[in-house]
Amino acid sequence: MKKVRYLLGETLGYALIYSGIARLFFNARLARGEMTAFYFHNPSAALFEKLMSRASHWGFEFVDANTVLHQLSSGVAPKKPMLFISVDDGWQGNLANMAVHAEKVKIPVCYFISTKPLDTGEFWWCRVKNSDLMKQLKAASNADRTEWIDTLSPHPVRVAMTRDELRELSLLRHASIGNHTHTHPILPSCTLPEIELELAKAHQRLVDVVGKKPTVFAYPNGDYDGRERDVLIELGYSMAFTTEPRGIVPGEPDLYQLPRFAANEHAGFAENFCRLIGLWQTLYLRFGMTRRISN
User: Fold this and answer.
1) What's the pLDDT score for residue 288?
2) What's 2-286's CATH class?
3) 266 C-beta neighbours (distance < 10 Å), count
4) What pLDDT, on the 0 to 100 scale, is given for residue 284?
5) Which GO terms describe its cellular component (predicted)?
6) pLDDT class of 295 with cuts at 50, 70, 90
7) Of 12, 51, 119, 275, whose CB count within 10 A is highest?
8) E strands, 205-285, in order
9) Which helix (H) or strand (E) holds 173?
10) What kind and span of H or E run contains 32?
11) Which long-range contacts does 61-65 make (Cβ < 8 Å, 24+ apart)?
């Protein structure tokens, strides 16, 4: 079934690209002055490199978070298509599969890091083997989710970066580090004190490891309810990214709810390039298939 889904996605993706529909959609977004934010979790080197190559061929300018902020603050629509690349969680595979190539071809990448896995080597969902249980845990209170996870067996191998690897990553010229909370909770399921602790604890640990204060944040699972905004401002954050699948438009009403398009790392190049330019998500939304398109 997964193979059929992969083939159908690639067939549609290539049809959209080579029919010219993708280019027309891309040009329309550029005419509206939209910027693009696109994020990964743990892609293969082949997928990342091919997507970045095609994005460069289509004329994207790869930019960091500071450039996005400056462009939004200017109130002027960019004349060139701008692309902000980020990756969530802090997977160990990001080093070899993304950072090496990004450094080689000078692509800025922001790594949004959850800090507890730096020590434990795992993300909490790695312990969950049942999709129904996963849904229940995501809907539970943060305290109940944490208590349940503690009863499950730890993941047998390390999948998250170590502190030393994060420190090494932070020294790369084209890498920047952002906050993704301490334990990667579902923030609307947290109490306000839990939100404050999650953001502040991750902030301090990142400062301790990389020696500089992060100024950008990404909401775990894309979920937020607005209580996070004041906490982020107090900690000195200038922007926060969601998983809302649309382009970043001039005059964004809230810098703490910036949208990003998501990669599907189980799909192939053609589908993911259509995701990168926002066409795939637009088609899904137009046909009412889902509100949020992610992995």
Assistant:
1) 64
2) alpha beta
3) 12
4) 86
5) extracellular region
6) very low
7) 275
8) 216-218, 239-241, 261-262
9) none
10) none
11) 62/106, 62/107, 62/108, 63/35, 63/108, 64/108, 64/110, 64/176, 65/110, 65/176, 65/178, 65/215, 65/216, 65/238, 65/239
